[in-house]
Amino acid sequence: MKRFLMIGVAGMAGALCRYFVGMGIGVFGGADFPLGTLIVNLSGCFVLGFFTTYLFRLTILNTDLVIAIGTGFLGAYTTFSTFSLETVRLFESGDAILAVTYLGLSFLGGNLLAWLGFTLGERRFVRKREAVKEGDL
Amino acid sequence: MWMDVISIAIGAFFGANARYWLSTWIKSRVKWDFPMATLIINSAGAFVLGFVVQLQLSFDWNLLLTTGFLGAFTTFSTFKLESVQLHAERKWKKVILYQVVTYSAGLALVVAGMFLGSVL
């Protein structure tokens, strides 16, 4: 029950962040390119990667909180369904170049940023562990 | 404005939970070394989204179901994280398979959902 509520509340926060970032970006990005979803998805990839190898491995968060942040907040913040629909809509409207650009940036950018977050988090975690070990001597 | 926020919040509350509990259940049933749970959830979400956008729902119901529920139910960050984890374990073939199937299924199922929504 506690986990259900925590995931739900974190999911609300994540989805609303996505909505407001999308609205904020929409002002600059224009209507024809889904820049909002792209920025949300790419930033979420980086943060989840980093949290997975760093924050979630420190013993400061309990399991419920890790699930609420990782699955609840970041899972709801980033989205695959809207991304798919936006890509199909770009193809439908005859903007094949924009559609392929959106697909390509999501594909490459998502992989790159998830990997970057994952790698930086890993390095930071290892450094922290070494520092703790030296402190014990 | 407040109505938008409430609609999205209600949808996302249940969407995030639906993903967590369904994914936990799928992982308990399917013991493959492959991220089936996320793949099934993202594919299903793409199909339902295609279907829902054809239904001409009211603005608030649309926000609740699409931006709220389906937006929170499907995920891009976990999909990419799982790919990076497979990559870190040097399972190259699985990385390629996971990405190709996810993107292909996502696009094809949005189209299929739209088609079903338009004929009903």
Automatic annotation (TrEMBL), chain A:
Any single Pfam family the record assigns to this protein: CRCB
Could you tell me the Gene Ontology terms of the biological process aspect for this record? cellular detoxification of fluoride
Listed GO molecular functions? fluoride channel activity; metal ion binding
Q: How is its activity regulated?
A: Na(+) is not transported, but it plays an essential structural role and its presence is essential for fluoride channel function.
Location of the protein in the cell: Cell membrane
Q: In its keyword annotation, does this UniProt entry include Cytoplasm?
A: no
Concerning PANTHER family, the annotation shows: FLUORIDE EXPORT PROTEIN 1-RELATED
Q: What does this protein do?
A: Fluoride-specific ion channel. Important for reducing fluoride concentration in the cell, thus reducing its toxicity.
What family is this? Belongs to the fluoride channel Fluc/FEX (TC 1.A.43) family.
The entry's protein name is Fluoride-specific ion channel FluC
Source organism per entry reads Listeria weihenstephanensis
Gene name on record?
A: fluC
From TrEMBL, chain B:
Q: How does it sit in the membrane?
A: Multi-pass membrane protein
Q: Name one GO cellular component term.
A: plasma membrane
- An annotated GO BP: cellular detoxification of fluoride
InterPro entries on file: FluC (IPR003691)
The UniProt transmembrane annotation reads 6-22, 34-55, 61-79, 100-119
| Compartments (UniProt record) | Cell membrane
- Stated regulation of activity: Na(+) is not transported, but it plays an essential structural role and its presence is essential for fluoride channel function.
Keywords recorded for this protein, A-Z: Cell membrane, Ion channel, Ion transport, Membrane, Metal-binding, Sodium, Transmembrane, Transmembrane helix, Transport
Entry annotated with the keyword rRNA-binding: no
What family does the entry list? Answer: Belongs to the fluoride channel Fluc/FEX (TC 1.A.43) family.
Q: What does this protein do?
A: Fluoride-specific ion channel. Important for reducing fluoride concentration in the cell, thus reducing its toxicity.
Name of the protein in its database record? Fluoride-specific ion channel FluC
* Gene that encodes it: fluC
